[in-house]
Amino acid sequence: MAPNEPPTSGTVPPSARPSPVPDTDTTPPSLPSETPTPDPSSPSEPSPDPSAESTAPPDRKRLMRRIALSSVAALALYAAAAVWSDVRALREVLEGFRWGLVPAILVLTLANYLLRMARWHGYLHWVGARPTLGDSARAFLLGLPMVATPGKVGEMLKSWIIKQVEGSPMSVTLPTVLVERLIDGLAMLVLASGGLVLLADERTRILSLAALAGLLLVVALVQARPIALWFLDRFERLPRIGRFAAQARTFYESCHRLLRPLPFVAGLGIGVLSWALEGLAFALVLIGLGVPATGETVLIAVFSFSLATVAGAVAGTPGGLGGVEAVLVALTMPLLALDRPVAVAAALLIRLATLWFAVAIGLAAMARWPELLWGAGGQGQRSVNANVAATGTGSTRPRI
Q: What is the SS3 string spanning the chain?
């Protein structure tokens, strides 16, 4: 991939302006020739070099250790749940499960992954990155085991992989991962809102609606461009950390693009559809355990799964461990009049078919494409280095 030529003037021709997507060349966002005025208090500090953004491969032992620890914690949690629900009764419930429904459950889960993968690929192109669909798919699959990290923060690894294979700075692509989390939270709260009327607990309704309002407020603040730019200007003047203003501005511009009406509505629609599919998978789990196959069962399943997933995200534990399972049991027992062993079995089965199914797919991807994680930077990284050398600046601000 050839590096961009440096701009020759401060004016971008109308034909080169993105509308709404940045220009369609296959290189990372180019860099303007102007650089922010350095802070007088630290004149000797160079601007950060985008080619130095997390170029080292992730620590393999540390990464695998975190996944292993999450797995051990899950085993301990599930063993405790089995004891709490009566091991013998739980075993009888599982023996009576309709295992022929498992393929349909996994297909619904896979459909969730495929829809979110397509959305993320679109997000990357919306902010100006140009990975192939194959590169986006591999990065997405390699990020699946990272759902077992606290708050899913390990999914930022996807942005690092895109930097290696395509060259776009992480300050450009990292917002795609964060906006994914924001949009998914909104989508699940939208799905949960349909079942809030079933809850007698007024506090849960209030907290859910407050969370929905809070996420929408974040979207509104990102779109309030004058306010955001004012804060970025103040940030640029701060000693020491002000030298990262270019990256902060690039980060904001990507967030602003992704939360414009068109990508926001499209992303939210995909999120609602994809998470509704996993809610349907939970409904199939309940039906397999003997719950009547009715519309009410489907509604409660989608509502319970969505609200439990939000609770797990708020808990911040690896993969929402403990929080998701506890909320699923707490909701399905009264709403569906389930016995404790049946509710626990339903929670464990859907977690195996979603969280741990994703981890298994991701580990298989790690075994298939280890060079994307543990190898050195490729052509994309060399393109960034050439681009920086050509423009003579360390700024990572894209053309906007």
A: CCCCCCCCCCCCCHHHCCCCCCCCCCCCCCCCCCCCCCCCCCCCCCCCCHHHCCCCCCCHHHHHHHHHHHHHHHHHHHHHHHHHHCHHHHHHHHHCCCHHHHHHHHHHHHHHHHHHHHHHHHHHHHCCCCCCHHHHHHHHHHHHHHHHCECCHHHHHHHHHHHHHHCCCHHHHHHHHHHHHHHHHHHHHHHHHCCHHHCCCHHHHHHHHHHHHHHHHHHHHHHCHHHHHHHHHHHHCCCCHHHHHHHHHHHHHHHHHHCCHHHHHHHHHHHHHHHHHHHHHHHHHHHHCCCCCCHHHHHHHHHHHHHHHHHHHHHCCECCCCHHHHHHHHHHHHHHCCCHHHHHHHHHHHHHHCHHHHHHHHHHHHHHCCHHHHCCCCHHHHHHHHHHHHHCCCCCCCCC
Distance CA 334, CA 300 (A): 11
Cα separation of 147 and 153, whole Å? 8
> What backbone phi and psi angles, to 5 degrees, belong to 150?
-55, 125
Among 310, 333, 341, 335, which Cα is nearest to 323's? 310
Contacts of 113 (CB under 8 A, 6+ apart): 140, 144, 358, 361
Q: How many angstroms from the chain centroid is the CA of residue 173?
A: 12
pTM confidence score: 0.75
Q: At what angle do helices 87-95 and 60-85 cross, to 10 degrees?
A: 100
The total of other beta-carbon atoms located within 10 Å of residue 47's CB is: 17
Task: Report the DSSP beta bridge partners of residue 318.
Answer: 150
Q: For residue 281, what are the β-bridge partners?
A: none
Q: What is the pLDDT of residues 92-149, one digit of tens each?
A: 999 999 999 999 999 999 999 999 999 999 999 999 999 999 999 999 999 998 887 7
φ/ψ of residue 33, rounded to 5: -80, -20
47, amino acid identity: S
Residue in the block written with tokens 């295992």: 99
CA distance 237 to 292: 63
Least confident window among 5-14, 222-231, 267-276: 5-14
Tell me the two tokens of residue 118. 């397509």
| pLDDT tens per residue, range 139-164 | 999 999 888 776 566 678 899 999 98
Give the separation between CA 148 and CA 5, rounded to whole angstroms: 41
